[in-house]
């Protein structure tokens, strides 16, 4: 019978299944050994198997079993391995109990709906917890808040004081006397009355027109017909009867001059009227000559004159028929035309 080669036998023994070795830590007791081997039941349990009564977090857990196997493989000697495994097992168990205690402690601090809380177990922190400011999300910066516009109160309009009515300008009314012959006395409404009716600034206080009077007769009546009335203005229309009676123009101008000087002495404004036309063309030259002398007198005496001849006469120097009632005296239209002409002139004087 051939003897087996010892080297070969040793090599083959490496590949043979070896029965599991049971760790016997006598100083830990039988229960510890059983836990280290992962056996919880009968004798037929496989090494490293977890029994039905094993605890996942206890000494027979896969973690402890792994440490046992490491100890068997790398540590020489049975006794040495036992000691190392025991120490590691204790460390693991202690660590597991520590972790379990922390988890249990944390769980006990969290009140659950089912578990009551004993008053005084948790002391409230008297200091208020500062509110955390949320960090801006993303890269976009938050838009600055635009303050709402403040409504500006609308000022209430102040009640306006009623506007004062402008005081009416005081109208200065000037009284006047009209000195003359029939051209001043006639027709029924002669020109002095029409002037008074149309001009509010002039008021007729006496019509001193006497039919047939010459300038000499008019001069003789100054006191009773003019000065006694003390008018502001004296209108004088004379000379037509002087022409009819053949009185020279120089005599007529002398009488008119005396009338002007006397009125000025009594602070009366004098306004001379030119002689109106006649219906006979033979009288036109004489009328024009006398009127020229009257204009010269007015200028020399610095008094105003009114040319009533121009609006009444045509190109030949005689009456327009509509302005005369008999070829010598004024018709109603003639009297109104004279009044309008005088009024327009005195308005230029500011009367």
Outline the structure in words.
The protein is an alpha/beta fold. Among the domains are: 21-40 and 55-102; 174-348, SGNH hydrolase (Rossmann fold, 3-Layer(aba) Sandwich). It is 41% helix and 8% strand. The chain contains 13 helices and five strands. Strands 2-1-3-4-5 form a five-stranded parallel beta sheet, sandwiched between helices. Helix 6 crosses helix 13 and helix 10 runs parallel beside helix 11 (284-301). The termini are far apart. The model is unreliable at 8-59 and 107-134 (pLDDT under 50).
SSE topology:
Elements: H1 6-14, H2 30-37, H3 62-74, H4 78-109, E1 174-180, H5 182-185, H6 191-198, E2 202-209, H7 215-220, H8 222-225, E3 233-237, H9 240-244, H10 249-265, E4 269-273, H11 284-301, E5 304-306, H12 309-312, H13 332-348
State the separation between the terminal residues, measured CA to CA.
183 Å
Shape: rod-shaped
Work out the helicity level: 40-55%
- The CATH topology of one domain comes to Rossmann fold
| DSSP strand tally | 5
Assigned CATH superfamily of one domain: SGNH hydrolase
Q: In which order are the strands of the major sheet placed?
A: 2-1-3-4-5
Summing up helix and strand content along with how strands pair, one would put the structural category as alpha/beta
| Chain-averaged pLDDT | 75
CATH architecture designation of one domain = 3-Layer(aba) Sandwich
Radius of gyration from the alpha-carbon trace, in angstroms: 76 Å
Beta-strand residue percentage = 5-15%
